[in-house]
Amino acid sequence: MPVSIAQIQKWKQQKKPIAALTASDYAIAKLLDKAGVDMILVGDSLAMVALGYKNTLPVTLDDMIRHAQAVGRGVDNALLIVDMPFLSYQVSTEEAMRSAGRIFKETDARGIKLEGGYPDMVETIRKLVQVGMPVMGHVGLTPQSVHRIGYRVQGGTPDTAEEILHQSKALVEAGIFALLLENIPADLATKITELIPVPTIGIGAGQGCDGQILVTHDVLGLSDWQPPFARKYVDLQSTITEAVKQYCQDVRNH
Ligand code: KIV
């Protein structure tokens, strides 16, 4: 049975940790799915790791849809979530509805994720959920706001921690099915996880969340740079470079 939203919500109650990773192409998506990843996110970080941009801002809705279609072809079991890219949902609720609608019509996504909290995103999320589109929230470090907040830890002071907690509760009230917590102190992430009824998925947010996500290119050692909290499980950059050097040598020595 493919993993459903209801399933991950049940896992929160059962305290069964949720393992999530990102994917941007068919080959990797297929491997992640076969290996038993519960949730696969077509994250807008693909702007950097797959398309070579400096941040997530340039990636378009068409880019996200194209990558999500490829990932979808490789996924049989994992819950497939697709990120809404910068400016595809912030200008108006109507535009958000159209952008999200395209993702659901043109890909196999079973949920979308968007960044931001109270007050900006609450009405938009409420509307999306009302018409049947499941939404995952994303608070803390929100990379689409890099030029305003940088890539620093968020919620490190009592006031900002309170603000993130307030945003999380408002997003739950608007109808999110899960919440991504990025780069916030572990004690704050644990508190949010205990206080809200939907699963929290953390990245750089400590062990107290209901699940964890990392960018697959970081886990596999394919990134040029990776955040300090991202554990590299294998160094594929070296492995691939060595294999390709060997191939070149074989061709040239023939
Ligand atoms: O785009 C992305 O990869 C993300 C990460 C925080 C998982 O949203």
UniProtKB/TrEMBL annotation:
3-methyl-2-oxobutanoate binds at D44, S45, D83, K113. One of its GO terms (molecular function) is 3-methyl-2-oxobutanoate hydroxymethyltransferase activity. InterPro entries: Pantoate_hydroxy_MeTrfase, Pyrv/PenolPyrv_kinase-like_dom, Pyrv_kinase-like_dom_sf. Pathway: Cofactor biosynthesis; (R)-pantothenate biosynthesis; (R)-pantoate from 3-methyl-2-oxobutanoate: step 1/2. Binds 1 Mg(2+) ion per subunit. Mg(2+) binds at D44, D83, E115. Pfam families: Pantoate_transf. Its EC number is 2.1.2.11. Keywords: Cytoplasm, Magnesium, Metal-binding, Pantothenate biosynthesis, Transferase. The active site is at E182 (proton acceptor). Its cofactor is Mg(2+). It is found in: Cytoplasm. SUPFAM superfamilies: Phosphoenolpyruvate/pyruvate domain (SSF51621). It catalyses: (6R)-5,10-methylene-5,6,7,8-tetrahydrofolate + 3-methyl-2-oxobutanoate + H2O = 2-dehydropantoate + (6S)-5,6,7,8-tetrahydrofolate. The keyword Iron-sulfur does not apply. Belongs to the PanB family. Catalyzes the reversible reaction in which hydroxymethyl group from 5,10-methylenetetrahydrofolate is transferred onto alpha-ketoisovalerate to form ketopantoate. Homodecamer; pentamer of dimers. This is 3-methyl-2-oxobutanoate hydroxymethyltransferase. It comes from Pseudanabaena galeata UHCC 0370. The gene is panB.
